[in-house]
Amino acid sequence: MAKAMAAVLCFAFHVLVLFLFVGCAARPFYPLHSRFLEGTRQPLQTTRPYNIAHRGSNGEFPEETLPAYKRAIEEGADFIETDILSSKDGVLICFHDVTLDETTDVGKYRKFANRKRTYEVQGVNITGFFTVDFTLKELQSLRVKQRFPYRDQQYNGKFSIITFEDFIEIALQAPRVVGIYPEIKNPVFINQRVKWGDGKRFEDKFVEILKKYGYQGSYLSKNWLKQPVFIQSFAPTSIIHISNLTDLPKILLIDDTTIPTQDTNQTYWEITSDSYFEYIKNYVVGIGPWKDTVVPAVNNYILTPTDLVTRAHAHNLQVHPYTYRNEYNFIHFNFHQDPYEEFDYWINTIGVDGLFTDFTGSLHHFKNWTSNLPSDDSGEQRASGLLQKITLMVNSYRSR
User: Fold this and answer.
1) Stretch (H or E) spanning 357
2) Cis omega before residue 323 (within 30°)?
């Protein structure tokens, strides 16, 4: 028995050394054995641009729904992204538009007919059914639908609006480490229309929920790698306010060149200047620009890239452009209707650090097929499986 035990251990040692050698040569080494001891999951990859699932895998399912986020995780998302708004009773929800009209069936309910309002949002009068005029219970009685008519309509009416906390639970229950990428959506409007009894504002409630679920730590810190998160906003004042509450990494979103910031009324040119980058890098780790401001396009053909990425990198800021979509009407002619050509251009020519995409699986496949590193489901997982088998073999001998 002792000789057999020694033989097993000797074999296990040599195989383990072999796998560790191969793994170290191929990618940054993560100590696989610690995952078993601590019960952790496969870690977030940090060696390639981040695959950010824009509102979940909304190329397949209605945006910001539970199945959209679960599918994005299945398809290899590094981060699942969401927009955060509030209900009338102060519950934070995952929803993009301040109005419910375009992506829910709110219009068919006679009992809600008198809820239609006209409010000023970012200097524009908008008429519709606003989330801030519905309680959470009422919001969750609605059913969501696909935004774009050329996408799959079979799931319309099957899913409901989820809360920010529901969204976090989806990420935390994933079989591997999956980050979250929530946006403080329209904070000026929300703070005007929703009042919390304890006198706190939208941003305070947002950070409270993150802390409740254990999100903490600066970018790439040990705590951050356990539960990764980027906080994003188009509103600089919200980012600065949140910076006083948490050291979690933040991203300043940047809109079209014609649209000023929603809170400070600064122009695109002001917030993308070197002087502003030097200022804002005290609060953010990166920027999230609309991709056509990075590489302008005319008549659906891309032009010469701007120097935005180069200058942002010079200020040690990451760049995560939005939004990459597989449909022909979103892919510029230069890429021959091929999303993989587009990914290649943005990752290998422009050099971005993350991409917001509606089609998580496509970006995941592209990164795996074109990388000289093993895919996330190859070498490291095989080594992990082998270690589990070795552990079982050793334990079986010990129990005899």
Assistant:
1) strand 354-357
2) yes
Sign of CA dihedral 75, 80, 81, 85: positive
Cβ contacts of 97 within 8 Å, gap of 6 or more? 103
Whose CA is closest to 383, among 15, 14, 6, 59?
A: 15
pLDDT per position as a tens digit, 178-196: 999 999 999 999 999 999 9
Mean local confidence (pLDDT), 166-185: 98
Q: Please name the residue ranges forming H helices in the chain.
A: 2-26, 32-38, 66-74, 136-141, 164-172, 187-193, 202-212, 222-226, 236-243, 268-271, 274-280, 291-294, 308-314, 339-344, 360-370, 379-398
Supply 211's token pair: 């802390």
**pTM across the whole model:** 0.85
Question: What is the per-residue pLDDT across 346-371, written as a single tens digit (0 to 9) for each?
Answer: 999 999 999 999 999 999 999 999 98
**Gap between the Cα atoms of 81 and 357, Å rounded:** 10
Convert the pLDDT of each residue in 282-303 to its tens digit: 999 999 999 999 999 999 999 9
The CATH architecture of the domain made up of 47-98+158-373 is Alpha-Beta Barrel (3.20)
* SS3 assignment, position 227: coil
Instruction: Give residues with Cβ within 8 angstroms of 304, minimum separation 6.
Output: 296
Q: Work out whether the CA dihedral 15, 21, 26, 28 comes out positive or negative.
A: positive
For the chain, the C-alpha Rg in angstroms (whole number) is 23
- In the chain, the amino acid numbered 320 is H
Closest CA to 380 of 388, 227, 178, 13: 388
Judging by DSSP bridges, how do beta strands 92-94 and 79-86 pair with one another?
antiparallel
